[in-house]
Amino acid sequence: MLAITEGGDAYAYSAAGAIAAGNVPSAKPSGILRIKAGTTEFDKDYFFNIETATGGYKLCGMKYIGGGKALAQIFSFKDHVAADKWTNRDCKLAIIDFNTKAITYVDGVPLHTGGSLQYGCVIDKTTAYLQVQNTADGIHIYKVDLAAAKGTKGAKVQGKAVMGLFKMTK
Questions:
Q1: How deeply is 163 buried, as exposed, middle or buried, from its count of CB atoms within 10 A (0-12, 13-18, 19+)?
Q2: Which residues of the chain have pLDDT under 70?
Q3: Which of 9, 114, 125, 146 has the fewest CB atoms within 10 Å, counting from its CB?
Q4: 111-145: b or e for each residue (b if 16 or more CB lie within 10 Å)?
Q5: CA–CA gap between residue 162 and residue 16 (Å, rounded)
Q6: What's the pTM?
C-alpha cells in the first residue's frame, strides 16, 4: 500500500515478519518508509519503526485518511508462528501520524480480523466507515470519529464480507 499525502510525499508500510499478514519471518522491523515529493528514492532520514513505537507489535494494514495520517490495523500479539499464516487475527485499530510518528489507538473498536481497511470509506478526513469482524460478535460496520479516535458499532452484516463502502455524491 502506498499513501500519497496532499503535499505529494509517498509513504509505504512493511508488515515485516508478520506471519499473520502472510509475510515470512524477518529480522527487520515492521515500519513505514517515505519518498519525498519530487524524488524517486526512499528518504534515508525517515523510518517510522512501528515495533519500537508500539512496544513490539507489527502492522497488519494501513489506509491513508488525509492530513499526514493513516488508519491502521496493528496486531495485538508479538509472537507470530507458522499457524498464524494469513489469519490476520487480533488486530487493534489505530491512527498513525506520519509527521509526529505518533500512534493513537481507537477506543470502542474490538480486536478484529485485519485486512479490511481497503474496503473502508473516509469522509472529509473526519469520519471513517469500515467493516470490523471478530469471532465473538460477527461482522459490523463501525463509524470512526478520526479526531476523537473513537469507534461506534453500527449495522450487523448479514453475510460473509462487505467488499466496499462508498460516499455517493452528485
A1: exposed
A2: none
A3: 125
A4: bbbbbbbebbebeeeeebbbbbbbeeeebbbbbbe
A5: 27
A6: 0.94
